[in-house]
Amino acid sequence: MRPISKGMGQQEVIGHAQVEVMYALNATDINDKNTYIDLHVLRAGKDISKHYSRFVELNDSLSDDFNRRNPNAKSRPRVFCPDGRKSTYWSEYQFTDIYTENGMHTLYAWMPRYMERYNAYYTESVESQAWTLHEEHNTILGHDCQRATCHWRGRDFEAWFAADIPVHLGPWIFGGLPGLIMKIHDKDKLYTWEAVSIRSGNFPITKRKYDGFRKDSREHIHKLQIAANRDYSKAGGARDPKTGQLISKVTPYEPLEME
Predict the structure, then answer these.
(1) What is the tally of structural domains in the chain?
(2) Residues 6+ apart with CB under 8 A from 166
(3) Quick one: residue 96, left, alpha or beta (phi over 0 = left, psi -120 to 50 = alpha)?
(4) 66 within a domain of the structure (yes/no)
(5) 249 and 255 Cβ atoms separated by less than 8 Å
(6) Exposed end of the chain (fewer CB within 10 Å): N or C?
(7) Distance, CA of 116 to CA of 238 (rounded, Å)
């Protein structure tokens, strides 16, 4: 179900970040990246920020390198970067690039292989979750972090933020706390992000052309993503070659956002 590697393509630098944070997604061993579902990157700048998958970035970069070295190849690998616990499994939380600028998120959603005709993007206001701060503290990567909780889009979440890092963002589209979100998970721990590295510097924020992506609504894209996870064959329009009937193979799936 993983989208076919297209390489990095033509990109342009649209801004710079002063902080780069890497988050492990659903790690079974925080010290071993091969146990992560994904490694997410947040590059946070004064005017613009970007959140994306490091595993996908590396895979596409290696794809570019293969094409340069093998210009006459008649076939090529579908996956170049095997990192991660389920490196061949498609997930909207891996195949979405998020840009945050002028109080708006713009999310570019890559769909799995046979649904790539639905590649699209949508925008929404930066929605600060309605957080409740608590007295508990924890240490993550040497930073003192305070606990916060909220109910958002159908789930209860717990976050730990570092007030000494003046970035009001976190993984995915979480944010709105008085400091960088270092760790966050839902009550049932179906989804957990935890920071594994933080760097200060001057990091370029790049953007692809996203050829073929159409503008859509969050609700419609979210519906397609759930369908892709729960019954990819049917959602992708796969048909039995003998009967012509749609193929259906249901898989249990719980989305992060229930609403």
Answers:
(1) 1
(2) 179, 180
(3) beta
(4) yes
(5) no
(6) C
(7) 13
In DSSP terms, which residues pair with 20 in a beta bridge? Answer: 43, 199
Element (H, E) at 83: none
The alpha-helical segments, DSSP class H, found in 205-257 are 218-230, 232-235
Determine which helix (DSSP H) or strand (DSSP E) holds 84, and give its type and residue range. Answer: none
Q: Does 246 fall in a domain?
A: no
Q: Pull the structure tokens for residue 98.
A: 């998020």
Q: Over the stretch 163-199, which tens digit does the pLDDT of each residue have? A: 999 999 999 999 999 999 999 999 999 999 999 999 9
Say which residues have a Cβ less than 8 Å from residue 122's Cβ, sequence separation at least 6. Answer: 106, 107, 109, 215, 216, 217, 218, 221
Report the Cα 175 to chain-centroid distance in Å: 15
- Residue written as tokens 């616990």? 85
- pLDDT tens digit string along 83-113? 666 655 688 998 999 999 999 999 999 998 8
31 part of a folded domain: yes
**Residue 241 structure tokens:** 């070659």
φ/ψ of 142, rounded to 5, equals: 80, 0
Residue labelled with tokens 């909220």 = 150
Asked whether residue 86 is domain-assigned, the answer is: yes
Q: What is the DSSP letter of 71?
A: T
For residue 113, the one-letter residue type is R
